[in-house]
């Protein structure tokens, strides 16, 4: 049995991604209809494929691999009657040949649309040929009317298309995989239980882009926040999830049922769906009105070339200590690292190796860390099945990890294919981290943070300890109270108000002032927004802690600054803003973003009358930074964002010096 969950392989002859693939799916031919011997089974592969933005379901019997000319697909004639047509052999041969290459980037958003298949005019009956190799089926998800799921010792699924009264042949999952298939299908279609038949799921194809924008907040296929909250007996705010889910269902049905809730209600529901991100907007005392701040002209900055192996070696003294570290960090910030240097440099940037350590000292540290790692690994490796049955938390952690490992960066050659050693290491490191920090354990999304580190380190022990250091920075993003996420969203909103009050006012008028649409950016540090190699560049630049604290927030501001004109000129509402921001995935230029973010930082630094709250956020006001705020982002104490006054003169409200809060309010 072979299964690829969300493997997103791309066939280079056609613009296609294999999103889901599962072998060992059977058709039971009817001996009366097909003239075959009783009990004969047709075994094949079931796939969900993205073909130029159209999501299709394909079933191909094993024999089809050697006889590609028998590809059958659903076509639509001028009278909208669904027929089964035989595609050209050339087209099928292209599909077969294209399986030899793989795409190495993740495409997060693809609009679902219906397109005719390039089929010939040769019509064949919906009944299968006596040759089992002609049992191949293909149809667009947008043409799917219902999915019936039944059990008879195993699960079998029956599809019914919108333009056909007949059902397609039942697909039998003798070797499992039906639930994984349905989970993947739910990414592209809403499956709602029929009121008349609980085994029948009615299909509604949503606006894919809008669906994806909510996926990371609601779908435990994404980051597992919903799963974590449902499992945690101490969390009592689950009502918000069902409300938001109902809203999304209603919104997706919009054109069919003309039923959609107003954006202001959605904003309230988003506050509920992310527990404790319900931001208190009551204004704190101690603010004073000052004149609007003039930030001046934003300076132009240039990027440099990456730090090479020769550049790196020049900073090593005879005993292996790093010298002139500030200059080295500046060079990394301005240009990043060449890939040959990353394996060594990331250990320093992440704090695994001290900058002042000698080569011999690092060897001793590595031996000690290796022993410590394998002691922790042995703890979960030695847990018996009997013990695990009595440890629900460990069992849940393992289940989530195994599920996530099978779909993390599977388009990257380091993780592609089944029985990949990279996947084994990914799994083992995440399980060992559960032993290292059992209170946090594993939350979906953490695999996204580990994957690039393991890719660079190519070593289990080094990757683990670098991941530990990274999680020390990101820990609060994944905690039950998600204090890191709340703090960052408030800080980002504060920065945007300083940089572009008009744009922030527009977002506020669309119930988007607290920038919930940046949730995914902050949660996993742009991991799903950039190509894999661009993520490496962005992370190593941010790990230098230059040119200020919380530089990643200025990266967010830089992206929003580039998109504000389109958002405002097109008069985007709440849903359109979510959709637009989500569609930026894989379309961003990391060097351009870094240039603009650095320019914004220099612009803020040059301001003579900078609000103290901004200095606290960016670490520019040393006197204002207490022990909690002096650390990296996510460790700042919670703050309440003030409510914008209804009437006041043009200017901004800045807290008086007696106040310790980092709040600042801008008014138009």
Can you tell me about this structure?
This protein is an alpha+beta fold and 668 residues long. It has 4 domains: 3-205, PH-domain like; 209-273, no CATH class; 287-298 and 481-667, Cyclin A, domain 1, CATH 1.10.472.80; 369-475, Helicase, Ruva Protein, domain 3 (Orthogonal Bundle), CATH 1.10.8. The protein has 25 helices and 16 strands. The protein has a 5-stranded antiparallel beta sheet with strand order 1-2-3-4-8, with helices on one face. Helix 12 crosses helix 15 and helix 22 packs across helix 24. It starts with a strand and ends with a strand. 42% of the residues are buried. Residues 1-14, 31-38, 64-134, 205-261, 271-276, 279-291 and 623-668 have low confidence and may be disordered.
Quick summary of this structure?
This protein is α+β, with helices and mostly antiparallel strands.
Query: What is the fold named in CATH at topology level of the largest domain?
Result: PH-domain like
Major sheet: 5 strands, antiparallel
Number of domains: 4
Helical amount: 40-55%
Alpha-carbon Rg, integer: 27 Å
Examine the secondary-structure arrangement and name the CATH architecture of the largest domain.
Answer: Roll
Number of strands: 16
Range of strand content: 5-15%
Nearest-integer average pLDDT:
74
Number of helices: 25
Instruction: Look at the structure and give the CATH class of the largest domain.
Output: Mainly Beta
Tell me the strand order in the biggest sheet.
1-2-3-4-8
Pairing-aware structural class of the strands and helices?
alpha+beta
Low-confidence stretches: 1-14, 31-38, 64-134, 205-261, 271-276, 279-291, 623-668
Kindly report how far apart the N and C termini lie.
62 Å
General shape: globular
